[in-house]
């Protein structure tokens, strides 16, 4: 089995067109993607041998992102808890299923009596026999929140199957089903030491199952160093690498170096050049399929990893599973007396680092924000009233629909990513901790106590104030701004930019924009980059459809 990248998967349910599935497979990976199953109502193509589970008439063919596979599953729920997505073959019945962690993607669309699916959006789009439509709800969410909430994508005709769900094709229609998410049923009965021990043991189990030397990226934060500790303890940390976060200094790298030294790891530091920034920006946008607003700081790491023949650790989901403290979960988001008010507070808290809609003209702001809020609340409604409403909602929105595109897309397109916190056991240990144990980042402390207390006490971004930066930030350098200005000049929102944004773009001595303009600039630019890439397969994009 190849493990050089995230799985490339496609197929169909229903009375499918085999030639179209072949076109999707070719767009995914050329000769690497081949048919591994085919019958009259289902077909599956992959770039590797499928994982196999079940027995007799109830069996499955699967694939996995971010975790080593543990054999022995007997049904789709068992396979999903182990991190797999797949195709269920149950007698004559066929259905797709996602994993419990939602890390791997299944995108799907319907055409001419069949359901077509893929692990990437673009092959579905490029193989479509019809023009497609912009999804203004998705784009409102991408601009306002940085990611599309719910199951939406930039294309109205393409959806993403939610975690812990199945999808069938019956009587000419797609049917999604979702039993209660296991993480929402966790009983909060683990003390701090018990939770810390369970979290550390889960990390050790995943590292042991990887069983090979692994490259460990190190930032100044706690997630990457916790993973480095687990791999180093097992003798499987090959070396460490840091990448500049492009925030004006070497704050992160300076915090990472003592950790690498304490673990006996060589540390390589990567930086980008200003002249490469526009190309890096477009590369990042393409690899995340235009679904996550950010700048291009991680692209040098992505390129570096593509040259390595090693698995790569990734801290996916650790922030929400261990950090129930200060960053997003305020008193209002955790108030159980009014679940809907808590959901609205979480929507506002997620946007605390910038109100991107303010980069648009006043008459566009309210419709865009209303659409984004509605999509967010659509997900939040499932968890309103649950004891851990805020972290469950946060995970199912920001973590699954935004952050996940880095280990599976930006980094995972080119390397084999290992994300130990995506393990069902790790999540259940987190959600089973008592309220007192999880309070104010307590699970970070407890996990480090059980794994590597000395490293846990070293200065990190959580405990050290960031000093003023003295270096030029590439995201607002001349080449970067020129590229943004060119993108913003043509596209759906070109005529409704806020005067403050156009003034900043045109100023000879512009300085740095405030957080609202910065995120707005990135979000609008992402939309225009997407529009330029796909305008040949899109129906006319009319801004009046956004504003009503």
TrEMBL record:
SUPFAM superfamilies: Adenine nucleotide alpha hydrolases-like (SSF52402), N-terminal nucleophile aminohydrolases (Ntn hydrolases) (SSF56235). This is Asparagine synthetase domain-containing protein. It comes from Nocardioides furvisabuli. The lineage of its organism: Bacteria, Bacillati, Actinomycetota, Actinomycetes, Propionibacteriales.
